[in-house]
């Protein structure tokens, strides 16, 4: 049954605290009204309080007296608590909201010594109702200390995703898993995995470099970038063991290299070793009558020249100037040659075609 918002232009909410008493510490209250035209969200403002624990919110004119299929809310309290739910039945009735009991929680984190003493360490608890944070300054940890307690004074019962990160210093971030908060005095113990330092040496043959960074295969997350020093070296600190893609910004092209991190290492950049380009074509672009590419084309030569990097491929294609280029590709398991006009080499994601460097 569609809900009719109160034509009196008010939403009335009674919030009961964990102690069973009326709760008035509301910072903001937002309702989301859904109908055939989509969802409209409006922030409501407190206009008064009733003796029976009811908080009165004025409703913006845009939603007053309208019919909606569904009305939901987000509530934020002065204690940094967030709640969400649905308003059911006749919205002219009082919306009853009961706050859950809050618990103190300790997250004990070990493995901190390897992070150094610069910046801050932070643990984030995230649920469907929002997130809460606790942080410490690494410089305030005792000398030689490898662990620390992160304290949360008020946490609702439920499941939370735990994330550890540093702000400044090593700039690392880890997913610590999912935990259930279920009662008073709970302690969750987690450990930071061993971290590695990787030094990348770039020979002169790598060309002029503008930037470089790492992408973790496990987390699909970009690690903080590293700058080259006067010896053409870039140092990455705080890397967990695993597989990474090193990406390098060269002028005017980019390059990549696959790296397995397993301890402190020094690696010489050898170019990407990426001598294939995978072509990804969106369904809309594939339907165009003059489309020369097919989704899944694997390019390995242009104008008869095999290439060893994406940069080489683009250089070979651009050498043709305004003339067409001949690309050798593997298509549906068969090696074929296709004619590519110069304008196609400038095709990008906006046109539904992407060129992805891939392994040998």
Binned strand content = over 45%
Count of helical regions:
3
Kindly identify the CATH topology of the largest domain.
Immunoglobulin-like
Name of the CATH first level of the largest domain: Mainly Beta
CATH architecture of the largest domain: Sandwich
- Characterize the main sheet: 7 strands, mixed
Mean pLDDT, as a whole number?
77
Q: How many β strands by DSSP?
A: 28
The low-pLDDT segments are none
Task: Give the key terms.
360 residues; Immunoglobulin-like; mainly beta; 5% helix; 4 domains; 6-stranded antiparallel beta sheet; 54% strand; 7-stranded mixed beta sheet; 3 helices; flat
Explain this structure to me?
- The chain has 360 residues and is mainly β.
- Helices cover 5% and strands 54% of the residues.
- It folds into four domains: 3-98, Immunoglobulin-like (Sandwich), CATH 2.60.40; 102-193, Sandwich (Immunoglobulin-like); 196-268, Sandwich (Immunoglobulin-like), CATH 2.60.40.1120; 276-358, PDZ domain (Pdz3 Domain, Roll).
- It has helices at 283-286, 310-319, 342-345, and strands spanning 3-4, 10-16, 26-35, 38-49, 54-58, 67-68, 70-77, 82-87, 95-98, 102-110, 120-127, 130-137, 147-156, 158-167, 173-181, 186-191, 195-201, 209-216, 233-240, 242-250, 254-261, 265-268, 276-281, 298-302, 305-306, 325-331, 334-340, 353-358.
- It has a seven-stranded mixed sheet with strand order 8-7-3-4-5-2-9, with no helix packed on it.
- It starts with a strand and ends with a strand.
């Amino acid at each position: 049954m569609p809900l009719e918002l109160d034509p009196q232009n008010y939403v009335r909410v009674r919030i009961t605290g964990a102690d069973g008493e009326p709760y008035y510490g509301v910072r903001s209250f937002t309702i989301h009204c859904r109908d055939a035209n989509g969802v409209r969200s409006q922030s409501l403002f407190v206009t008064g309080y009733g003796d029976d624990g009811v908080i009165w919110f004025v409703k913006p004119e845009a939603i007053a007296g309208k019919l909606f299929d569904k009305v939901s809310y987000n509530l934020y309290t002065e204690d940094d608590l967030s709640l969400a739910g649905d308003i059911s039945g006749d919205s002219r009735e009082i919306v009853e909201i009961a706050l859950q009991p809050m618990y103190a929680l300790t997250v004990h984190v070990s493995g901190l010594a390897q992070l150094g003493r610069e910046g801050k360490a932070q643990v984030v608890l995230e649920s469907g109702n929002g997130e809460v944070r606790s942080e410490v300054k690494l410089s305030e940890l005792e000398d030689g200390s490898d662990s620390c307690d992160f304290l949360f004074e008020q946490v609702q019962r439920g499941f939370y995703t735990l994330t550890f990160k540093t702000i400044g210093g090593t700039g690392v971030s880890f997913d610590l898993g999912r935990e259930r908060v279920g009662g008073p005095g709970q302690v969750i113990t987690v450990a930071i995995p061993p971290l590695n330092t990787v030094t990348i040496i770039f020979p002169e043959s790598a060309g002029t470099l503008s930037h470089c960074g790492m992408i973790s295969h496990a987390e699909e997350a970009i690690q903080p970038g590293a700058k080259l020093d006067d010896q053409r070296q870039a140092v990455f600190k705080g890397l967990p063991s695993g597989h990474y893609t090193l990406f390098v910004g060269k002028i005017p092209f980019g390059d990549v290299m696959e790296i397995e991190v397993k301890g402190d290492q020094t690696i010489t950049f050898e170019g990407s070793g990426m001598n294939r380009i995978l072509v990804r074509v969106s369904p809309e672009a594939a339907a165009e009558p003059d489309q020369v590419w097919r989704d899944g084309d694997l390019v390995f030569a242009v104008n008869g020249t095999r290439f060893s990097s994406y940069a080489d491929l683009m250089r070979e294609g651009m050498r043709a100037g305004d003339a067409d280029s001949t690309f050798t590709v593997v298509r549906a398991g068969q090696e074929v040659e296709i004619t590519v006009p110069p304008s196609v080499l400038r095709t990008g994601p906006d046109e539904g075609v992407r060129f992805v460097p891939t392994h040998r």
